[in-house]
Amino acid sequence: MTRDQDDASGHAWPSLDDEPVVAKPVALDKTLGRASSTATNASEKVVGRASSTATNASEKVVGRASSTATNASEKARMAPFRGEQVASAQYLAAPVWRRFFAALIDLVVPLTAWALATWALIATDPEPLELPPWNLFDQVVDYLHDRPGRAFLSLTIFVALQVAWPLVFGARTPGKRALDVLMLGGDGRPPSRLRVLGWALWRVPSLALAGLGAWWALLDPERRTLHDRLARVWLVRLSNSGPNDER
What we know:
Blueprint: H1 3-8, H2 26-77, E1 91-93, H3 96-123, H4 136-146, H5 148-169, H6 174-178, E2 182-184, H7 193-208, H8 212-215, H9 226-231, E3 234-238
Antiparallel strand pairs: 1-3, 2-3
Helix pairs in contact: 3-5, 4-5, 5-7
């Protein structure tokens, strides 16, 4: 049958210019869209969980490191017996300012007694020395030059008083009591009189060298002076006696 015959019979032939009608896979597109959305959401959740886990782990590590460093610092500050016995939280190393004011209080009586003794030495001199009418420093220099024996005796009295004062009161001198400072030995108990004597004797050259032995406490991790370490004693205060002090 020809095209003309088909046209005559009423049959409609498709035109060459017409585009072929193709059925669009709507259901397939929806399925692929859902699958892609599900995969994206799952990927985002996995990445979010991984990021959250990494952040939490990092925070925990940093927190533990910070806590460990803080605890180590606290133990170093709160361990007056480090190296000889387990650190005790009952005591804290006495801050330098407490020790300084305690020493000033303990200096009042020995210094007064030494001044009176020195005045007595000068007053009882069989050959009184005519001091020039200059200032006090010049008079002292002249007296040391002209009376070296009595000057040495005066210095000996001063040192003896400085040694005797802590020996009389032991671990709790008036100054230490006023500033809540306690001297302890390596066993956590007040030291014996013999050890206190050793501490007092070591303190003389420690302070005589421009006070270098006392300045040592500013750098010492346990706030101990040089004569503290030489005598193996610790100056501490009770940990519940007040807020934490700085150096």
